[in-house]
Amino acid sequence: MFRRKRAKDTPASQGKPQNPQNPPPEPGTPPDPLDLRLADPGDAPMSLGADTTLRMRDALQEAERRLGPAHEEVLRLRHNYAFILCAWSAAAPPGDTYMLDRAIPLLLENLGHQSASLGPYARDTLTTLEGIGSAHLSAGRPAEAVPYLERALKGDELSPDRDEERTLTWREKLSDAYAAAGLTDRAIAVLEETVAGSRRLLPAGGEKLEARKQKLFTAYHGAGRLPEATTLCREIIADKERFYGPDHLSTYIWVDNLAHLLHDAGDLDAAITCYERVVQGFEHILGPHNEKIAYRYHNLAIAHLDAGRPDRALPYSRAALAAREHSLGPDDERTLDALVSLISAYDQAGRLEEAVSATERLIGALERVGGPNHPKLPEVRTYLDQLMRTLP
Fold it and tell me: What's the predicted TM-score (pTM) here?
């Protein structure tokens, strides 16, 4: 129970705060319709109501009877109807693939006609391939998505009317599919190509480039590739400092990520320097009495303990406990975790009387929370007995 540990948050969980007015697209989002004809002045966006969807279905069926299944207009209507079904799937409960399973056969039918009449590298053929892969990915079938996304990307790279930005988007989608299918090394390799291409094509500091860098950082960290994650983290920090300033909250979040990586690598002095910068920044922005700053106090204290400096850890352990008591209450599980860390710091610093007092306080809190039969009480009482025997 008294094992030293850092807070459970990891660098991979510390991403850029999302703007709720501009959410990023989810992996597997279907492609845009081929032609919704909304470019003319005065046109209004298409409604996605149920009546509109039924009208699209009826228009497709009527056009098929009148023009045949492979006519250009029919292909457009079929694609747009499939796109609307994919859009409706976003409102379905988790695991419900009914709409996607209706859309995929429509796209497959289009693919057959387009491959025969337009060729394998035509823009519409490739868009349909990507749409099928995206639909499978959204349905939780990444292994089925991968072949279509690979064909789409390969064809796009060979296409005479290649759109570089679209190629980057499709490459990122393929990386998502590889990752979901458990093909981590392939996912990272494709994502590295995506980031490299984005650096060439997109403006520095742009939202899309930064999001891809952060996704690659998360992939590196999840795969245990800490040197690559550390290098990329430093680059992201430099971007944040350049475009947001050294004292921006998002800058401090990424400095915190770097501190975690340095801590894991055993570079404790460098980690402590980063943790201290983060603590000062969070105190300035958020104040000393909230859970976010408590988490940073805690990790700075653990770094000092790991470096064999319990006396320097104690002020931060106390601050973490005070912040959690203020924001969460005295009996919250996270508050008690902070109390355990403080007890460990007192013990390692040789301040046994304070360790005894804090342990007695912990016993009282556990009894309030779980009664006299709380499962942790025997362990804590045994520890208290050991402390008492070591007192002068």
Answer: 0.81
Q: Report the C-alpha gap between 345 and 293 in whole angstroms.
A: 19
List Cβ<8 Å contacts ≥24 apart for 259-268.
259/299, 259/303, 260/6, 260/10, 260/11, 260/299, 261/11, 261/221, 261/226, 261/229, 261/230, 261/233, 262/230, 263/6, 263/299, 263/303, 263/306, 264/226, 265/226, 265/230, 268/303, 268/306, 268/307
Cα separation of 389 and 295, whole Å? Answer: 33
E strands, 196-330, where? none
CA-wise closest residue to 6 among 335, 309, 260: 260
The residues near 313 (Cβ < 8 Å, ≥ 6 apart) are 300, 301, 302, 304, 305, 345, 348, 349
Q: What's the pLDDT tens digit per position in 107-130? A: 999 999 999 999 998 999 999 999
Tokens of 69: 């299944």
Euclidean distance between CA atoms 353 and 179, whole angstroms: 52
Query: What residue has token string 């009664």?
Result: 371
